[in-house]
Amino acid sequence: MKTIAFPYGKEVLTYDIPESRFKAELVSRMHHYRASISQEELVRNALDNPVGTPPLRVMAEDRKKVVLIASDHTRPVPSKIIVPGMLAEIRRGNPRADITILVATGCHRDTSREELESKFGPDILRQEKIIVHNCDSQDMVYMGKLPSGGDLILNRAAVETDLLVAEGFIEPHFFAGFSGGRKSVLPGIASRKTVVYNHNAEFIAHPAARTGIIEGNPIHNDMLYAARIARLDFICNVVINANKEVIYAAAGDCDLAHRAGREFLLAKCRVAPSVADIAISTNGGYPLDQNIYQAVKGMTAAEATVRRGGVIIQLAKSNDGHGAPEFYKTFAEEKDLDRMLDTFMKTPKETTRADQWQSQIFARVLKHAKVIYISDAPDEMVRDLHMIPAHSIAGAVKMAEEILGKADASITAIPDGVAVIVSP
How far is CA 64 from CA 96, 160, 372, in A? Predict the structure, then answer.
């Protein structure tokens, strides 16, 4: 037997796969990587040795207002480690700096006070000025057109500051190539109108809008342009392992520092597919598996290694339900996936529906393979989203065997579907 551990919320579920059926365990090599120094020292070294910019303390010397963009509750960014170092650097260069932490929610729901405390710790929550971005707010500024033609509209606090900086983390992203860097601005602090245009059906369907791809990716191109127009002058981004620990940090220019992080990550997280009848994947556990919407990311890793017509078993606790009303409504109301995808492709970029991009990718996955979903979400909700509900790995595998008509169906395991780039 091959015993595999799958993150599920804040727990770990294990499953024994018979050797005769086991194809492969696709795991990022960075999960076994151990840095020679502490997490804090990695961040400190990055801040002391920025790529393509002066140190942050030097950049802050003559800047009265500073905005630090931080990730929201849906991202496992170790802000308790990154943000204190960045704040100290800013104040080292300018003790009187007026600093605002702007939480980049994109089009996600507001981050609660409890989530802010969990993310930053009680001291920063009590001592610092923190505002949460609202993509539907009227307090936005039009910044011109994106290269693709869409309107670039950004949070006023970020636009009107004297120095804009950001923290974040770099991981594989299923249509932007990688998270982090320029994504702090778009979608992080952009208006809903800007985000939905950038995530339009034509771009999502583009062959370069895939995990681990930057070159020729139209979504990335708009994002980087937006970051430059917003004058995102400095970032500190990290790479984390399965325990959510910092194993690498890069700071400096929003593109050059991000490139350094991408290169480190790519060297360790690219894995070759091992095509199987069944692929078992996760969203890496908490906080990325809080809803079904986010869990689509982990499914795309399974999509890349399960045979067409096979079965994907996705584990995601989904204690927050579906996570996106429009996403849920799309699948609850439309049962024909081909008609759904055709509608998306015919939708003008300017009128892209909320969460259409996630629905488009999810529909693509569902057309490729059946999906059995292990979660705490209501069974009816899972069925409305065209999936088969299950509540244990053993039960899900039995269902998959029945669907395939094969008691000896081969299995590939992906313990963390958002941490790997599955490509030849």
Answer: 7, 11, 53
How many other CB atoms sit within 10 Å of the CB of residue 255? 17
At CB < 8 A and 24+ separation, what contacts does 33-40 make? 33/241, 33/247, 33/268, 34/247, 35/246, 35/247, 35/248, 39/78, 39/81, 39/245, 39/246, 40/81, 40/85
Secondary structure element (H or E) that encloses residue 412, with its range: strand 411-414
What is the SS3 assignment for 7? Answer: strand
Domains in the chain and their CATH numbers? 2-26+273-422 (3.90.226.30), 32-268 (3.40.50.11440)
Report the predicted TM-score, pTM, of the whole model to 2 decimal places: 0.86
Mean pLDDT score of the chain: 96
Q: Could you report the per-residue pLDDT of 334-370, keeping only the tens digit for each? A: 999 999 999 999 999 999 988 899 999 999 999 999 9
Enumerate the active-site residues.
108, 173
DSSP 200: -
Closest CA to 311 of 232, 417, 375, 402: 402
For residue 144, the SS3 value is strand
pLDDT along the chain (424 residues), means of 10: 96 97 93 88 98 98 97 89 98 98 92 93 96 95 96 98 97 93 98 95 96 96 98 97 90 98 93 97 93 96 98 97 94 96 95 92 98 98 98 98 98 95 90
Helix, coil or strand: residue 31 = helix
Q: Amino acid identity, residue 198?
A: N
Which residues make beta-bridge pairs with 373? Answer: 314, 389
Residue range 38-62, pLDDT digits in tens: 999 999 999 999 999 999 999 999 9
- In 3D space, the residue among 73, 143, 128 whose CA is nearest the CA of residue 106 turns out to be 73
Distance CA 262, CA 271 (A): 15
